[in-house]
Amino acid sequence: MKNQNPKSFETNLVEKSTKYIDNFRKNIDMLMAEHDYTIKETAEIADISYDTLKTFLYDKEAKDCRLSTAVKLAKAFHISIDELVGADTIDASNLENMKIYRTLPQ
Prior knowledge:
mainly alpha, 0% strand, globular
């Protein structure tokens, strides 16, 4: 299994858009690409079903997801739900502090 504890990422996640499900899809896709995770690996790390993740990523009919699914995915990538869905509820200075924090050694 690949690194299950990514400390930081270079991807500039989508934010400041009210199309949260689209942000969700784009951000997960970018994070998976950056960490070189497949859908199956991401689902396994997040402890969600492969079919659920595949549906949210590629089925345009899927309009929303369960909060528990979003939480599991955010935890899998060690980011906030705000960052995952691009809700823009964290002010810029706190967001920058979070990014710096992720680069620090444990």
